[in-house]
Design a protein that fits this description.
This protein is about 35% helix and about 30% strand. The protein is of the alpha+beta class and about 220 residues long. It is elongated, with a radius of gyration of 31 Å. The N and C termini lie far apart (about 95 Å).
C-alpha cells in the first residue's frame, strides 16, 4: 500500500482501514497453495498448539456520522487458540476528526491512539471501550476510520488488526451531487423531447392546412 507525502493522517488512516479489509483476499490471491511436502501431523499439531489464536473486532454501531456525534467504540479480543496468552497490547487509532473523551479498563490515550494491556486464557474474551466525539473533519475526507490491533510483547508488528469505517457528510454530499447531475440530465432530455414534440405538432397542423381545399367564393 503506497501513501504519498501529501496524504493527510486522516486519509492515511482511512487507506489503512480499507487495506486491512481487503488484505485477506489479496493475500489469498497472491499466495497459491504451496507445493512443498506437508509437515508431519505431530509437528503440525505441536505448532498449532503453541501459536496464539487471538482475534479482534471493532465497531461503534454506526454506518454514518457527523460533527458533534458522540461515539462509543467497542473493541473485542478473543483467544480461540489452544494456549493462554498471558500478556498482549490492544490499541485503537483516534483518527483526525475524533476527540477522545474516555476509555474503559484504564486505557491510555497518547499520540492519536488508545492502548490497553491485558491477557486471556484459552477461550477467554475481553471487551474494551472508547468514547469519542466527532469534530470538524476535512471536506475531502469521506470516511472516518478506526483501526484496532493486537500486539504481543517484544514485537512491533501487530499480530491481528480490524477496522471500522463510518460515512461522513462529505461522502453523502458527493453522492447527492452525482444524483443531482443525473437528474439534471434527465430533465434536460425531457425538455428537449417536449420541444421536439411541439415542433412536430406545429408541422403536422401546417401540413394539414396546406392540404385542405380552399372554398370558392359564392
Amino acid at each position: 500500500m503506497k501513501i504519498s507525502q501529501r496524504t493527510t493522517p486522516a486519509q492515511a488512516t482511512a487507506t489503512l482501514a480499507v487495506g486491512l479489509i481487503a488484505m485477506p483476499a489479496a493475500m489469498a490471491a497472491s499466495h497459491p497453495p504451496a507445493t512443498h511436502p506437508a509437515p508431519s501431523p505431530t509437528a503440525s499439531a505441536a505448532g498449532a498448539s503453541r501459536a496464539p489464536g487471538l482475534t479482534v473486532s471493532v465497531s461503534d454501531g454506526h454506518v454514518a456520522v457527523q460533527a458533534k456525534d458522540e461515539l462509543t467504540y467497542t473493541v473485542s479480543v478473543r483467544n480461540s487458540g489452544a494456549v493462554a496468552v498471558p500478556r498482549f497490547t490492544v490499541s485503537q487509532t483516534l483518527s483526525t476528526g475524533l476527540e477522545f473523551l474516555s476509555a474503559s479498563d484504564h486505557g491510555v490515550a497518547t499520540s492519536g491512539h488508545v492502548s490497553w494491556s491485558a491477557g486471556l486464557p484459552v477461550g477467554g474474551e475481553r471487551t474494551f471501550r472508547v468514547a469519542a466525539r466527532v469534530t470538524r473533519t476535512p471536506a475531502t475526507l469521506l470516511r472516518l476510520a478506526a483501526v484496532a490491533c493486537v500486539t504481543l510483547p517484544g514485537s512491533t508488528r501487530p499480530l491481528v488488526c480490524a477496522a471500522h469505517l463510518d460515512r461522513l457528510p462529505a461522502a453523502a454530499a458527493a453522492t447527492a451531487s452525482r444524483s443531482g447531475h443525473s437528474a439534471g440530465n434527465v430533465l434536460t432530455y425531457t425538455g428537449a423531447g417536449a420541444a421536439v414534440l411541439v415542433l412536430g405538432l406545429i408541422a403536422t397542423i401546417a401540413a394539414r392546412r396546406r392540404g385542405r381545399p380552399r372554398r370558392q367564393p359564392t
